[in-house]
Design brief:
The chain is α+β, with helices and mostly antiparallel strands and about 150 residues long. The chain has helices spanning about 15-30, 30-35, 90-105, 125-130; strands at about 5-10, 55-60, 65-75, 75-85, 110-115, 135, 140-145, 150. It has a single domain, classed as Gcn5-related N-acetyltransferase (GNAT) (Aminopeptidase, 3-Layer(aba) Sandwich), CATH 3.40.630. The chain is built from 4 helices and 8 strands; from the N terminus they run βααβββαβαβββ. The longest helix has 16 residues, at about 15-30. It is globular and about 35 Å long.
Length: about 150
């Protein structure tokens, strides 16, 4: 399986609503990690973007494998979220996320933040954050500093 690209979510398109409903099913499969304490209470809540955000479907073999969310916190600073297909393979997703990391500085991003609570359901996410170069700032916050051409 190979990474094939990103598709920006268009919330009004019927196909994208169908795909967002699928993402909600993925989230339901791991609700303790994806739904608890997030504000998403229904499938329909996935049909609207979070405030100040942009979302992309991560495509592998032409099919969505994850939903990648960037929520703007300030100039160049974003919180990042990722909801993955429970059956997704890590290697193509990791390749896709490394591609994202490389082009974000050119889009004006300077920092990415992710919150990963100290619960076992986030163990895999903490490993993924470390593989992508995020540094643990405190018990739950991870930060990735971006520069043109590389990351710090």
């Amino acid at each position: 399986m190979t990474f094939t690209g990103f598709t920006r979510v268009q919330y009004k398109q019927p196909l994208h609503k169908t795909l967002l409903a699928e993402v909600y099913r993925w989230a339901m499969a791991r609700s303790e990690a994806y739904l608890d304490e997030t504000g998403y209470t229904t499938r329909e809540s996935f049909f609207e973007p979070p405030p100040h955000s942009v979302e992309f479907f991560v495509m592998v073999e032409g099919k969505p494998s994850a939903l990648l969310t960037f929520i703007r916190w300030g100039k160049g600073v974003f919180q990042v979220g990722l909801i993955t297909d429970p059956g997704a393979r890590l290697r193509p997703l990791l390749a896709a996320l490394r591609d994202v990391r490389a082009w974000l500085p050119g889009c004006g991003a300077s920092e990415l933040w992710v919150k990963l609570p100290l619960r076992s359901c986030y163990d895999a996410a903490r490993k993924l954050a470390a593989k992508l170069g995020f540094n643990q700032i405190n018990e739950t916050d991870w930060k990735l500093e971006l520069t043109h051409g590389n990351t710090k």
